[in-house]
Amino acid sequence: MDAFQLLSRGGVRFDKQRFQSDVRLFNKSNSTETKATVSVSLDSQLPPELDFFKYATGGQSKRKVTHDESVAGASRPADPSGSIQKRRKVDAEDQLSDDGSSDEEADGTPARKHRVVSKGSDIPMPADKFEELTERYGMAPRLLANLREHNYKHPTGVQAHGIPILLEGRDLAAISPTGTGKTLAYLLPVFSSLRAPIASLNDAGSGVRALVLAPTRELAHQIHNECLKLATGRKWRLVLFNKATASTLRDKNVRDKVDIIISTPLRLVAAIQEGSLELNNVRHLILDEADRLLDNEFIAQVQEVVAVCTYPDVRKAVFSATLPAGVEKLAMGMLRNPIRIVVGLKDTPLPLIAQSLTYVADDASKLPSLLTYLAQPYNPPLLIFTSTQPRASSLAEELTMNGVPNMDCLHAGMTKKERDDAVSRMRRGESWIMVTTEVMARGMDFKGVREVINYDFPTSVQSYIHRIGRTGRAGREGKAVTYFTDADAPYLKSIANVLLQSGSSVPEWILKLPKPSRLKKKQMGRVKRAETVNPARKIGRRDAIKKR
Ligand SMILES: Nc1ncnc2c1ncn2[C@@H]1O[C@H](COP(=O)(O)OP(=O)(O)OP(=O)(O)O)[C@@H](O)[C@H]1O
């Protein structure tokens, strides 16, 4: 036990983070090795609109809470319908959380706190205000002005903790729920560390200086748009890597002056292999949606990209709302002396999203259920997830034929133009409903999405968390409905646990279902389904497509 633990045993709490330089001095005298530290912070400066973790008010219990206790009404009452809500079982790391401070501010408003657990050596102090970044790290006033202009007034949790870590030149693994501002958490330090556009330095440049990888074209596009916000007023060369820009960058004089590239892995690897792109000057490498980028589909390409980022001091960071243990190990292996931060509760959606499970018996019953739902007043815009491209198209056709207005469809089988147009219509608020596939599940930030419907059961807990995370973003409330059939029943318990952890209610019978085995979990959502959502319909499809 270290001296600080001993000192704090009588109820006194020693703030290691605040006095970290003293802690370092003390530790040095004990040992020459740098010890890993775990620190937990409950931010108290956030305005209500950024308080994504209102549920954390008052802190999390250090005990595991049993069903009985929660039903008895300790924290949340049992639903009269027989549903159960409970607080999340806390894991070992989470237990280090609370500081025991009061639930309310002096003026009676709820305390604005959320929980961040940081792990690693020499963890920098979080920055509660963007202005602090200018004082502490000399961040350009222009960046500060751009933040203000785009209404980024206060850092979110992942930003307050993550930005100083990156500005101190450390590698980072950041896990923070969907819609909590991870994009700005990595873009701001990248811009700040690069200082100025290479073109403005009258420097011939020696190649791309920062690279952001994302799993889908749409997400890369969105990240590029976020870059443009920070770039306002300066001539940064920001490249969204696609067919056209790849061709422009074949000219070495042009690509030498590029500041930041945002890309999906596949296209980038093609350019590297062709010899039309070098990444040996990349100083900042970011993997957004890291667990997806490190899964079987992308891992080889990502490893190839990482291998050619040979700048001696390249800084790497991985970000996601979910990072399963196996993938986390892989990610950590890529990083050098990293700091890991977890905002909120790992692999848990925001409690701002009211989640529910709806029994629909079999596949054929889903469409009537959805049509009945859409016949009632609902809150547009609404995203509907299906498991495959043909099913997305088929459902879109069915909805059109049933007169559902302002309906759109987006999946990876569509042309680039069709996909771009669908995203634009959604952003302009012209689409009330978008039927889609997993391609829209990660990262996409359509601010107003009020509801998500999982028409087809998700293929994993992570997929569920990302899909429903398209709503309830940036402090707004949202709703998520998941249809399940008899065939989905064996996997229900895994999703039900996620609902429970984030405070939504679950019917008691679901909790009594057996826990699926690891092998079984891998089959989740992969039940055989027809290509069309209404196999009975043969006529009228062509008309529906035309109409759409
Ligand atoms: N400091 C801030 N103040 C106000 N709004 C912010 C702030 N940071 C980010 N936002 C807004 O929050 C929304 C969500 O941000 P972002 O898309 O970066 O979330 P994310 O954590 O990356 O989500 P996901 O896990 O789904 O990718 C965006 O609309 C963004 O503009």
Automatic annotation (TrEMBL):
<dbReference type="Pfam" id="PF00271">
    <property type="entry name" value="Helicase_C"/>
</dbReference>
<dbReference type="InterPro" id="IPR050079">
    <property type="entry name" value="DEAD_box_RNA_helicase"/>
</dbReference>
<feature type="domain" description="Helicase ATP-binding">
    <location>
        <begin position="122"/>
        <end position="430"/>
    </location>
</feature>
<keyword id="KW-0378">Hydrolase</keyword>
<keyword id="KW-0547">Nucleotide-binding</keyword>
<dbReference type="InterPro" id="IPR011545">
    <property type="entry name" value="DEAD/DEAH_box_helicase_dom"/>
</dbReference>
<dbReference type="InterPro" id="IPR014013">
    <property type="entry name" value="Helic_SF1/SF2_ATP-bd_DinG/Rad3"/>
</dbReference>
<feature type="region of interest" description="Disordered">
    <location>
        <begin position="521"/>
        <end position="548"/>
    </location>
</feature>
<keyword id="KW-0694">RNA-binding</keyword>
<keyword id="KW-0347">Helicase</keyword>
<feature type="compositionally biased region" description="Acidic residues">
    <location>
        <begin position="93"/>
        <end position="107"/>
    </location>
</feature>
<protein>
    <recommendedName>
        <fullName>RNA helicase</fullName>
        <ecNumber>3.6.4.13</ecNumber>
    </recommendedName>
</protein>
<dbReference type="InterPro" id="IPR044764">
    <property type="entry name" value="DDX52/Rok1_DEADc"/>
</dbReference>
<feature type="domain" description="Helicase ATP-binding">
    <location>
        <begin position="163"/>
        <end position="341"/>
    </location>
</feature>
<feature type="region of interest" description="Disordered">
    <location>
        <begin position="56"/>
        <end position="123"/>
    </location>
</feature>
<dbReference type="GO" id="GO:0005524">
    <property type="term" value="F:ATP binding"/>
</dbReference>
<dbReference type="InterPro" id="IPR014001">
    <property type="entry name" value="Helicase_ATP-bd"/>
</dbReference>
<dbReference type="InterPro" id="IPR000629">
    <property type="entry name" value="RNA-helicase_DEAD-box_CS"/>
</dbReference>
<dbReference type="GO" id="GO:0003724">
    <property type="term" value="F:RNA helicase activity"/>
</dbReference>
<dbReference type="InterPro" id="IPR001650">
    <property type="entry name" value="Helicase_C-like"/>
</dbReference>
<dbReference type="GO" id="GO:0030490">
    <property type="term" value="P:maturation of SSU-rRNA"/>
</dbReference>
<comment type="similarity">
    <text>Belongs to the DEAD box helicase family. DDX52/ROK1 subfamily.</text>
</comment>
<feature type="compositionally biased region" description="Basic residues">
    <location>
        <begin position="538"/>
        <end position="548"/>
    </location>
</feature>
<dbReference type="GO" id="GO:0005829">
    <property type="term" value="C:cytosol"/>
</dbReference>
<dbReference type="GO" id="GO:0016787">
    <property type="term" value="F:hydrolase activity"/>
</dbReference>
<dbReference type="GO" id="GO:0003723">
    <property type="term" value="F:RNA binding"/>
</dbReference>
<keyword id="KW-0067">ATP-binding</keyword>
<feature type="domain" description="Helicase C-terminal">
    <location>
        <begin position="366"/>
        <end position="514"/>
    </location>
</feature>
<dbReference type="InterPro" id="IPR027417">
    <property type="entry name" value="P-loop_NTPase"/>
</dbReference>
<dbReference type="Pfam" id="PF00270">
    <property type="entry name" value="DEAD"/>
</dbReference>
